[in-house]
Design brief:
mainly alpha
């Protein structure tokens, strides 16, 4: 397994190299935008853009920092997310701008620049296959369970689904997999037993989604979300531990969230 082949670093702080100043600036900006929007002094669209840039930008910037990228790369990531979120506010297809984020990450990962964060060649094809199968199973189970227990029917609005998937590909999945697997789990499993590292990553990932204001807050949906996200997180941690890459887990997450979007959930 990849994790067993990598040298373990000397004990150190789990959160070392976190870009605290950037995270604080993002939090203050998002909070100020929300306060001004609620006071009627700023359009809520601006507050939503600030929220996307702060939430996903904080996770992705931290993942980049822990992978050894400098301040410039972190600012570019936040800027791309903010610009994409602004484009998405004008029209559902404006969310296609989010696709620039994985393109930029792919270019940045060339020459091994993001190898420490789980973006490097080669990616074992077996891990990609297992990730695909896991995503199909969890996504299919979600659709069947939602139909049988909650009576939810599939809804397909091409523009909405396409926009939501673009958001997942360009913001949701890169931020979540980059931080919770490529950064947090990666560091934790080098310091602690595998089970403890997996539990930390899964708990943090589930907490991130449960505090998301876009998630419906009914008890049934919250419990269901916690269940499926816990399973997805555990599978993706194992895939990273096995392959050393975040891509198999990203594939599983993409298929799962594609199924979720078919339930009519918007970004």
């Amino acid at each position: 397994m990849w994790a067993l082949e990598q040298p373990r670093p000397p004990p150190g702080r789990l959160l070392a190299d976190t870009p605290v100043r950037l995270l604080a600036a993002l939090a203050v900006t998002a909070a100020l935008a929300l306060v001004l929007a609620r006071a009627g002094l700023l359009p809520f669209a601006v507050a939503r853009v600030a929220g996307v840039a702060a939430g996903h930008g904080a996770l992705l910037a931290t993942a980049l920092a822990w992978a050894g990228c400098g301040p410039g790369a972190r600012l570019v990531a936040v800027g791309l997310l903010a610009g994409s979120a602004a484009a998405a506010q004008g029209h559902p297809l404006g969310a296609l701008a989010y696709l620039c984020v994985p393109v930029w990450l792919g270019r940045t990962a060339r020459d091994g620049k993001l190898a420490a964060g789980g973006l490097a060649d080669p990616v074992p094809w077996r891990a990609l296959l297992v990730g695909t199968l896991a995503g199909l199973f969890l996504g299919g189970h979600l659709l069947v369970s939602a139909a049988l227990t909650l009576g939810v029917r599939l809804r397909f609005d091409a523009a909405d689904v396409l926009g939501a998937l673009a958001y997942d590909i360009g913001a949701n999945i890169p931020a979540a997999e980059g931080f919770f697997r490529g950064a947090l789990f990666n560091r934790a499993q080098r310091r602690w037993p595998l089970g403890a590292a997996l539990a930390l990553s899964a708990a943090a990932c589930v907490a991130r989604y449960l505090v998301d204001p876009l998630l419906p807050k009914s008890v049934e949906l919250v419990v269901g979300a916690a269940f499926y996200l816990s399973l997805l997180s555990a599978v993706n941690c194992w895939l990273f531990w096995w392959s050393g890459s975040v891509l198999p887990g990203a594939g599983a997450a993409l298929i799962f969230f594609a199924a979720y979007r078919l339930l009519g959930a918007r970004a």
